[in-house]
Amino acid sequence: MTKTEKKELMKLACKVRMGIIEGTHSAKSGHPGGSLSAADMYTYLYFKEMNVDPEKPRDPDRDRFVLSKGHTAPGLYSVLAQRGFFPVEELKTLRKIGSRLQGHPNMNETPGVDMSTGSLGQGVSAAAGMALAAKKQGKDLRVYTLLGDGEIEEGQVWEAMMFAHHYELDNLCVIVDNNDLQIDGRIADVIDPYPIPDKFKAFGLHVEEIDGHDFDQIEAALESAKKTKGVPTAIIMKTLKGKGVSFMEDQAGWHGKAPNDEQYDQAMAELGKQLEEVEAM
Amino acid sequence: MADIKKIATRESYGNALVELGREHADLVVLDADLAGATKTSTFKKEFPDRHFDCGIAEGNMMAVAAGIASMGMVPFASTFAMFAAGRAFEQVRNSIGYPHLNVKIGATHGGISVGEDGASHQCCEDFALMRSIPGMTVICPADDVEARAAVKAAYEFEGPVYLRFGRSGVPVFHNDDSFKFEIGKGEVLQDGNDIAIIATGIMVGEAVKAGEELRAEGINARVINMSTIKPLDEELVLKAAEECGKIVTCEEHSIVGGLGEAVSSLLSEKKPTPVRRIGVNDEFGHSGPAADLLKDFGLSAENIVATVKAWL
Hints:
The structure holds two protein chains of two kinds.
Chain A: H1 3-27, H2 32-37, H3 39-49, E1 64-67, H4 73-83, H5 123-136, E2 143-148, H6 155-166, E3 172-178, E4 181-182, E5 185-186, H7 187-191, H8 196-202, E6 206-211, H9 215-227, E7 233-238, H10 261-279
Parallel strand pairs in A: 1-2, 2-3, 3-7, 6-7
Antiparallel strand pairs in A: 4-5
Helix pairs in contact in A: 1-3, 1-4, 1-10, 3-4, 3-9, 5-6
Chain B: E1 6-8, H1 9-23, E2 27-31, H2 35-38, H3 41-46, E3 51-53, H4 58-70, E4 74-80, H5 81-87, H6 89-97, E5 104-108, H7 126-131, E6 137-139, H8 144-156, E7 161-164, E8 169-171, E9 187-190, E10 195-199, H9 203-216, E11 221-225, E12 228-230, H10 234-244, E13 247-254, H11 259-270, E14 275-280, H12 290-296, H13 301-311
Parallel strand pairs in B: 2-3, 2-4, 4-5, 5-7, 6-7, 10-11, 10-13, 13-14
Antiparallel strand pairs in B: 1-8, 6-12, 9-11
């Protein structure tokens, strides 16, 4: 990736983060923490990695993305808006009556959403089903799914991994957002799912461990996934929950809480400053 | 009907899948380590590359089916009713029902006629669970001919469908050549205006037998096969209420939440009519040969006749 490309991605990620704050502030609810931690991955996937076209959101040959951790929909909506699937202004309708932007993703209402999710552990299975169907249909497309690190406490995730490995779904890329926090606290304190990479390795997946805020590492891991044949890939990315907004960073309390007016102003000011800094690079 | 041949509707399911599979390349079958019992093994034999065993992981299977359906293929996901409707309820509700994906759920071993395996495997709650999901179609065919027709209709239909099949053989009373199946349409098998007997699944055969016995005693019962539990054929139920004045429902399912409640709810709002529900009376099943169990639980022509005679 060129320096210009990386700079562009960094700018976009700032804008995606602003959209997350915009949406959750307007909704007075929602999940900013895990949306912000995955914002760089969202940005890379939708602007660099995936074969998608906002003009043809239902193109049968497009790559698929399943947000298995459906509660971080504000992040998905924000990147979809930036990518042109719907107006950025619409982010302010998040969670409101009549809005296409439901609290959790709805594939029948929101352009660009490939699967309805929200109940943890299910999206990853649906993604495996998509990957299997794509192979049967002879389609050369890839399926990406994003899971929370708390989400992998759901047994169904491991049922899906057994399935994906058994059917050699090398067109499936499972990404775990390891921000280390879930609603009740540190994941290790709630019900310890560590060591995460070892578990995916034990299920036979090709595993990449990266810093989820480093675009070079994101790119390298996704490229490695594409080159891996015969087994699915799991990318375990270390991230910071609430990344980009100082008072939200690494705070479990910001898992599912919206910023008030004052916090909104501060968050937007911080992100605006980050955007300026990137532009000055 | 004693000399009529008996076929379990799960056999019909397996056979219909093979017939459909020959015509439609987009049909795939999923199973959860029960292919021999659900009879999807019949399909697997002919189309091994379109049959996917998901292992003992029903929740995953339902969500995998959802993903497959989102790609434009038509998955039939199969396991026992207990695990399809019960264990995987939330996956069916959230990953199939909510996005209204084109998944067909082939649930075999419904009701207490599972027999010897006992209560843990005798699902008498699946109608209740599945009909509570918005947009879900729920079908329980009565015999081999109807079961095969229902599987084909489910394939042609766009949207999620729950199909319930039985483990034990049931008499084949429909004529293969003349039978027409339509989702959401009940079928009058015997006419009469003294009382209406509305049955589904394996209880239809018993209701027909009861209807014949009652007629021999001068009671003309209208016998209706209500194979589609949801959407209910409201017109047919209301007509029966209007013309017969009394209704008995029969199902191999709990009296809570099934056909009896669906009929009662409709009538209480649109045409209050007395109803007696024959079904499993809010209790768990137990082990035993299927035929003995059905008798034990009053799921028999004998009990239908007794109920009608005591009422009239």
